[in-house]
Amino acid sequence: MRDFIVINYHVVSDQKIAHVAHLFPYKSPEMFDRDLEYLQHSFRIVSYDQITEHLSGKKRLLPKSVALTFDDGLMECYEVVRPLLLKRGIPCMFFVSTDYIDNRGMAKEHKASLLIQQVLSTDEKTVTQINQELQKFFGYQILGKIDLIAQIKSTGIHDGSLIERLGSLLELDFNGYLNEHTPYLTSTQIQTMDSEGFKIGSHGKDHIKFSDLTSTQIEEAMADSCFAIKNLTRKQSIPFAFPHNADDVSRLLLRKILDDHSHIGLLFDANGISSEHDFLISRLNGDRPHKGEESRSNLSINIKNAYIEEIATRFQRIR
User: Cα(161)–Cα(210) distance, rounded to whole angstroms?
Assistant: First the structure.
């Protein structure tokens, strides 16, 4: 197990965010601030630079060190998360999908959430007509709203053609939503956060799952997106967080990419607190809200459970 923990979030809000609400639950500002209070009291919150120094052997981290990260580059990172971090003087890494900076496009997952919202307010007659279209073009058999939503969640988040077809059938204007709601960070906001000491990293170009890409595509996605962030922030080393996860991506390939592209920094994955390589750092998800007593942070139990799971996994490997 690694000698420090990294906790990852995606968004913090007390509002229902249509492009996120049907993907995963998330914490309110009050809940997130209680997480920060707990971490400041129980851990030493460290920065990206401190982690790189630790891994290079220049300056070891003290026990019970933890780092914070946010994925996806949603505008709440600037408007909600940033003020809470600045108030407490807490460092954080923000990983941005570069194709969506300045709201130039939208991730399939976020389109899928909007589609689900639209389906929930659509009459069954329209759903029946959509079913006929999906059978014709994709061969899917949809039996009502619940089945259609399940299809969007299971297939749509990885299938751009299905997303766009459903958007057309449901008369959902994705570009109009982008222009009206501006869900992603702007270049100016990113540069402001960088100037305030937050570390800006890459989350790929378009949030595609890397296990679906060829080796060449993986290298291009990592190198090009990190270069885009480098151009924005003028920093020499840009960390990279894998969209979804790095499962089934060759570690030898990742090592070669790092050797060939000096502007790519440390790599961040999912998978809790497991430790695989110094250049690939796992992260524990912190998004899920509290169950039961909401006056306390739930990170304590989440971290304990992550350690129990990792110990159990190692025990199974030994057996």
Answer: 18
* CA dihedral over 298, 53, 55, 214, signed as positive or negative: positive
Q: How does pLDDT run across 56-77, given as a tens digit for each residue?
A: 999 999 999 999 999 999 999 9
- Cα–Cα distance measured from residue 229 to residue 111, given in angstroms and rounded to the nearest whole number: 24
Report the distance separating Cα 45 and Cα 39, nearest Å: 7
Count other Cβ atoms within 10 Å, centred on residue 250. 12
- Helix/strand/coil for 57: coil
Asked if residues 109 and 23 have their Cβ atoms less than 8 Å apart, the reply is: yes
Q: Concatenated DSSP letters for 78-95?
A: IIIIHHHHHHHT---EEE
Query: What is the model's pTM?
Result: 0.94
Q: Are 117 and 230 in contact (CB under 8 A)?
A: no
Could you report the per-residue pLDDT of 152-191, keeping only the tens digit for each? Answer: 888 767 778 889 988 998 999 999 999 999 999 999 999 9
